[in-house]
Amino acid sequence: MLEKLFYTETSWFFTLLRLVLGFVILPHGLQKLCGWFGGYGFAATLDFFKSEGIPYAIGFLVIVAESFGALGLIFGLFTRLSSFGIALTMLGAAVYVRKNGFFMNWFNQQAGEGFEYHILAIGIALILMVAGGGQLALDSWIANKVHSN
């Protein structure tokens, strides 16, 4: 069971996807967790989620997925679990938060952003959930340790 969780395809392609998704999601997580990059920090983010009707537990999981999940992707640690958390977070954001059509608001002609970004993140996360983290992932080191025991 553990072997399947940590096994990863040895491909630089999956490494690239893992790093891109991790580095794109991490700043969003750090906004929510630490208040960096113009964010509000942990408590204020939870309060905002609560004001939007999102329970504290779900808000907590979003913050964990976007911060620690993104770090997990960057290091290739628990790639499948991290990708799953990010995919669920992006699915929730696309369905419940973003209601302004498909397209991003490039020309400031709509009330807010669309959900195309979320679809891209979900697509990358699904690939990583199936294939693993690729080269240089800590998951592959753990898989080798589990396999040798």
UniProtKB/TrEMBL annotation:
- What are the annotated GO cellular component locations? plasma membrane
Q: What domain of life?
A: Bacteria
Main location class: membrane
Q: Where are the transmembrane segments?
A: 12-30, 54-74, 81-97, 117-138
Record localization: Cell membrane
Q: Which UniProt keywords apply?
A: Cell membrane, Membrane, Transmembrane, Transmembrane helix
> In what way does this protein cross or attach to the membrane?
Multi-pass membrane protein
Specify the protein name.
Putative oxidoreductase
